[in-house]
Amino acid sequence: MTATEKWYEKSGEQGDVVISSRIRLARNLKNYPFPHLLSVQQKTEIAMKVKEALEQSNSYIAKEFQFISMSELSAAQTGSLMERHIISPEFANDRKGKYLLLTKDETVSIMINEEDHLRIQVLTEGLSLDKAYETADKIDTLLDNALGFAFHDKLGYLTQCPTNIGTGLRASVMLHLPSLQSSKVVERLKDNLSKIGLTLRGTFGEGTQALGGMYQLSNQVTLGISEETAIENLKSVAMQVIDNERTVRSQFCKRTETQDYIMRCLGTLKYAVLMSNQESMKLLSAVRMGINEKLIEEDIAKVTKLMIILQPYTLIKNAEKELSPTQRDLLRAKILKETLT
Q: Quick check: 312 and 324 in contact, CB under 8 A?
């Protein structure tokens, strides 16, 4: 494993269903208004304070961070960060006064001046919420000691949006649920989850589609509950969803029609000349299901990586030049053929 290997290049625990685990902490500095009331100068001031706090700490991870001014990035670079789940769609808009601290392996990112002053995020492969939380908690403590976060004895951490007040924690897992999606039970599952304080969203969060059967399962409750309890609740429910997906997937893949469809998907991925993003996600999702059911011999991490790096902005960023939609579709098909043949 190299030092710069990314989370999406590895398969972790429960990796047949769980793509990644994420811990995100919303924090605000004392003595500053919330970001929507800050001047650009104040936003830059906060960013410099966070950067200096990391640089002056004795933490090993501090040396791994790149400091990025969002206003200096191109649209493709910004969009690719979102496609790789490093930043939120909201953070990609109106980039003036926004900054990003990002480790080389893209596991840890700190969005500065999003909805809150800080969004500390740790992203790890597979079902690894405890591991992600341990890292996030260390960074949280380090920055709190150096800068001082806005905290109320009864309410907990103070955030711009009341839905984050308390722990300020959002724990989530990215799940690959093609079988539950195909069997039309996802909408019923969403309703049931909302009743127990969890939410199931699309690939890139609220209001987005579940491309390739990719869903985000996360906690909603942040007040009156500890971080550890929130994470344990999420893990428990995630395992139930994982078991359901495996059961339905196994039944699906026993059918000759399903096996034929999966192999046709693999053939198209190997030999198509043009491939749109939506089609590639759909076909790769089916192939990933086939790998899990031992119908196809292939490295599952390779397929997961393709689902990330073939996104439109990431293709442009890696090509280091502008690409028309047709050029993207040609390049996407070329990469698929070279990787899967």
A: no
